[in-house]
């Protein structure tokens, strides 16, 4: 993340701008602090990663899942690749292909104001979606990729993937999905894959994703739900229960969407996963003409 990117992030407490005080490495943030211009709260930056959340607000399942991801970050991708066919009778690639079209990346067009398009993945993890996103983006389009996660371990793995595979630059930061450090209507696509069911307050996290998305843009959320339309053996139910140990009610949270949500589409994309897509209507007052 470079100094110019600071215009896109805000203080999680009061949503005001942030000022940089620290070292730069080739124009990128290295080590220092981001200080809120209104409330003066100081947010640390270490190894180029801004930490834009309050530790006291990380609790319950959020804390539990972070411990797991921080403990075994390098094993996450191999385990997902190997266990998905065993538990779900499908491949990881087919699972990801199930939700990719809902992002409508191929329909992206340059912004009239000349600003780059911005995509945000909440809970980016190790960056497994990056090659799919790059494949779908129209060539030559000016796009910024942003990724946020609560796990430093997973963000470290994401950086390794970017360097090893030669992906385009991704603006990475540590943050809490319940208090996204971005201004209203900042992103042209917002998505979260495989995490919302483990949040201590999914309703608030969904509201935050809706807040930072531009009106009318697709917001895509994917997580576990046992397909209600088909029968399941005891072994399948046991496998699903093992996968969703963090909750007793893993389901598509359509009922938790903000009241202004429109074009809501809930789909079962595999035996164990749903895909929830919605958009936000533009509730801002219209300016009178004439």
From TrEMBL:
Pfam families found in the cross-reference section: Methyltransf_11 (PF08241)
UniProt superkingdom: Bacteria
Membrane spanning stretches: none
InterPro entries recorded: Methyltransf_11, SAM-dependent_MTases_sf
Domain Methyltransferase type: 120-217
GO MF term set: S-adenosylmethionine-dependent methyltransferase activity
Listed name of the protein: Conserved uncharacterized protein
Organism of derivation: Stigmatella aurantiaca (strain DW4/3-1)
């Amino acid at each position: 993340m470079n100094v110019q990117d600071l215009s896109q992030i805000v203080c999680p407490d009061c949503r005001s701008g942030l000022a940089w005080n620290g070292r730069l490495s080739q124009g990128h943030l290295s080590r220092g602090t981001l200080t809120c211009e209104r409330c003066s709260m100081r947010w640390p930056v270490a190894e180029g990663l801004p930490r834009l959340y309050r530790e006291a607000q990380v609790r319950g399942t959020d804390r539990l899942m972070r411990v797991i991801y921080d403990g075994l970050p390098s094993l996450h991708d191999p385990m997902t690749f190997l266990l998905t066919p065993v538990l779900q009778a499908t491949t990881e690639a087919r699972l990801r292909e199930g939700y990719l079209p809902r992002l409508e990346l191929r329909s992206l067009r340059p912004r009239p104001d000349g600003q780059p398009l911005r995509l945000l993945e909440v809970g980016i993890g190790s960056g497994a979606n990056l090659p799919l996103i790059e494949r779908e983006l129209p060539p030559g389009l000016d796009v910024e990729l942003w990724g946020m996660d609560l796990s430093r371990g997973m963000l470290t793995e994401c950086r390794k993937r970017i360097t090893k595979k030669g992906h385009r630059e991704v603006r990475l930061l540590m943050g809490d999905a319940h208090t996204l450090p971005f201004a209203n209507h900042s992103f042209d696509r917002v998505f979260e894959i495989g995490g919302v069911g483990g949040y201590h307050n999914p309703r608030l996290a969904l509201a935050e994703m809706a807040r930072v998305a531009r009106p009318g843009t697709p917001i895509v959320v994917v997580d576990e739900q046992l397909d209600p339309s088909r029968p399941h053996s005891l072994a399948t139910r046991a496998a699903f229960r093992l996968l969703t140990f963090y909750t007793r009610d893993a389901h598509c949270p359509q009922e938790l969407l903000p009241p202004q949500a429109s074009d809501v589409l809930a789909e079962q994309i595999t035996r164990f996963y749903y895909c929830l897509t919605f958009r936000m209507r533009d509730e801002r007052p219209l300016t009178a003409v004439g």
